[in-house]
Amino acid sequence: MSTSDTTPSDEADLRAAEYVLGTLGRVEHEAYRRERAGSKSLQAAERAWEARLAPLAAAVPEAAPPPGAWDGIAAQLPGQAPRPTVQIVDLRPALRRWRRAALAAGALAAGLALFIAVERFAPAPETTQYLAVVNRGGELPALVVRVDPRAGTVQVRSLAAEAPRDRSLELWVVPASGAPRSLGLVHKAAGTRLPLPAGDRALLDGASLAVTLEPPGGSPSGSPTGPAVYSGRLVREEAR
Amino acid sequence: MVRVEDRLTRDRPDDEAAVLADLIALVATGRQDALRALYDRTAPKLFGLILRIVRDRGAAEDVLQDAYLRVWQGAAGYAPEAGRPMAWLAAIARHRAIDLVRRRGEVTMPAGEDDEEDWLARIADPRDSEAEFLDRDALLACLGRLEPAQRDCIVLAYCEGLSREELAARYDRPVNTVKTWLHRGLASLRGCLDAVA
């Protein structure tokens, strides 16, 4: 069987299917793994079978893992602290303000910790994207923010950011110097794609993103009025 | 001041898959906090899959940890265009779980009548996104066209991790018969799903 074929033979495709199912015998299993390593077509066949059968996974009930399970994983990761670029200067004040706001609004359990990770994604500078992941309480992630300066969009996927019912979450870009500019409201159901005003694109380097708690419909004044529930600096890395 | 609220657009309901894909991309850059976020979002699903196959909480915890370390090492190899993140994650978890039970070499006792799950009836999950919903309906319809023995072997192998030998014991048939059922069932399934797609 050629390893460069785009479609594997019927026999090979069924071996990929049985590998995904887990029903190959031990010898066949090992032989399959060796052959797959050099066969793009077999790898593609395997991905296709994973996709075909994946809906079956929904039939199996979820089960909460033991509380210490994550610690066992973390202990085996390379012992590296979060990178210094993710330090967020105003995180702690924001944290206290958010706690107060949350307690006042009764919307969130106390205990909020935010991570922000900003990464340069694509290899070419003109396709640089920034990605931030925001966790809440060290457990449930709250927001994923993707900034694409070339397309001029900020995409916010709200996972568990529960705004109090009578408030809105508003996203701001805060230039290194100058007043914050509103990018729009973060909606909680699906992802929100916010156009980045053309003038703001050049301001991204060294800028921060911030999410504040505002009256319904957003800040009436055009400037942030509520507590910052999240903020993080965008760090642009040089092209490799 | 530019106000942009009126230009908001919504993503398709595949948002969850997109979030998981973003997190996996961050894990590939070495972000441990992204792995944690991915774990928080997907561990109950993966632990459920593993537990069903391994049937022992202590062993399942070991497999779960092993699976996320594989995710950590292999995140750069995930290609969003090749499949949904959950399919990729489920495959990693199932393979780790099945490797363990095969290594353990135990033949699990055939389940009693009252222990039998109707897996197909359990698939309906209203939280699925529209795209996943369509995939699921197609799979259900195509499984429904298979001969019952072929269908049951595929579903039991996937959901409970049964081997050919275990399936043969359960149906009191030779292993080669089970192998034939699996091959015929999988080939019919592929033909049916490809025709639907």
Automatic annotation (TrEMBL), chain B:
Residues 137-189 form the RNA polymerase sigma factor 70 region 4 type domain. Keywords: DNA-binding, Sigma factor, Transcription, Transcription regulation. Residues 38-105 form the RNA polymerase sigma-70 region domain. PROSITE patterns: SIGMA70_ECF. One of its GO terms (molecular function) is sigma factor activity. SUPFAM superfamilies: Sigma2 domain of RNA polymerase sigma factors, Sigma3 and sigma4 domains of RNA polymerase sigma factors. It holds the Pfam family Sigma70_r4_2. InterPro entries: RNA_pol_sigma-70-like, RNA_pol_sigma-70_dom, RNA_pol_sigma70_ECF_CS, RNA_pol_sigma70_r2, RNA_pol_sigma70_r4_t2, RNA_pol_sigma_r2, RNA_pol_sigma_r3/r4-like, WH-like_DNA-bd_sf. GO terms for biological process: DNA-templated transcription initiation. Belongs to the sigma-70 factor family. ECF subfamily. PANTHER family: RNA POLYMERASE ECF-TYPE SIGMA FACTO, RNA POLYMERASE SIGMA FACTOR SIGZ. This is RNA polymerase sigma factor. It comes from Methylobacterium aquaticum. The gene is rpoE.
